[in-house]
Design brief:
Elements lengths: L7 H30 L3 H95 L14 H14 L10 H8 L9
Helix pairs in contact: 1-2, 2-3
Length: about 190
C-alpha cells in the first residue's frame, strides 16, 4: 500500500489490530512469567518470543502513530487546498458577475439617458401638437387618456414595472395609449 492510498481509517484499523495483538501477547507474557522464572524451558522460550513480539509491536505502534499524524496532516492540507480551490472558483464567478453587472448598469444609464430624451421629446411634441390643433381650431371636444401628459404615463409604466404592480393588471404600452388617444389624427400607415 502506497502512502498516498493509506487513509486514517486504515491506519486506525492497523493500530487497533496491533494494540489487540499487544494486549494478547502481554497477557501471554504475564501468564508465562511465573513458569519461566521457575525454570520451565518452554515457558522461557515462549516468553522470550512473546517479549520480542511485544517489542516489535510497540515499535510498530510508534511508526503507525507517526504515519497516522502524517496522513491527518496530508488530508488536512488536501482539504484546505480543495476548500481554497472551491473558494477561488466562486470568487472568479463573482468577479465575472461583477463585470457583467457593471456592463448592465452602464446599459441602464444609457437607457435612462435615452428615456430622458424621449420624455422631453414627448412633452415638446405634445405641446407642438396642441399648439397646432389650437391654430387649426381643431381642439378635441372629448377627453381621452393619453391626450395630455403622455410622458407621465411613460413614467407610470416604468414605475409599475419596477414596483411589480399594474393598476389594471394588464400591461399598458405607452404607444398603444397614444395611438388610441390620437387615432383620429393618425394616418393609416401607423
Amino acid at each position: 500500500m502506497t502512502a498516498s492510498l493509506i487513509t486514517v481509517l486504515q491506519l486506525d484499523r492497523q493500530l487497533a489490530a496491533a494494540r489487540e495483538r499487544l494486549a494478547v501477547l502481554e497477557q501471554d507474557a504475564r501468564d508465562l512469567a511465573l513458569p519461566a522464572v521457575s525454570g520451565d524451558q518452554d515457558a522461557i522460550t515462549s516468553l522470550a518470543s512473546a517479549n520480542s513480539s511485544i517489542g516489535q509491536i510497540r515499535d510498530d505502534l510508534v511508526i503507525l502513530e507517526r504515519a497516522r499524524v502524517s496522513v491527518v496532516e496530508q488530508q488536512k492540507k488536501t482539504s484546505e487546498a480543495d476548500a481554497a480551490a472551491y473558494r477561488a472558483r466562486h470568487l472568479e464567478f463573482a468577479q465575472d458577475r461583477a463585470a457583467a453587472i457593471v456592463k448592465l448598469a452602464a446599459r441602464a444609464d444609457e437607457l435612462v439617458a435615452e428615456f430622458k430624451s424621449v420624455y422631453d421629446d414627448l412633452g415638446a411634441t405634445e405641446n407642438q401638437m396642441w399648439e397646432a390643433l389650437c391654430e387649426a381650431s381643431a381642439l378635441p371636444q372629448d377627453a381621452i387618456v393619453g391626450r395630455r401628459n403622455l410622458r407621465l404615463l411613460a413614467i407610470e409604466s416604468m414605475n409599475a414595472f419596477t414596483k411589480g404592480v399594474d393598476k389594471f393588471n394588464k400591461p399598458r404600452a405607452v404607444a398603444d395609449v397614444a395611438k388610441r388617444a390620437w387615432a383620429h389624427l393618425l394616418k393609416n400607415d401607423i
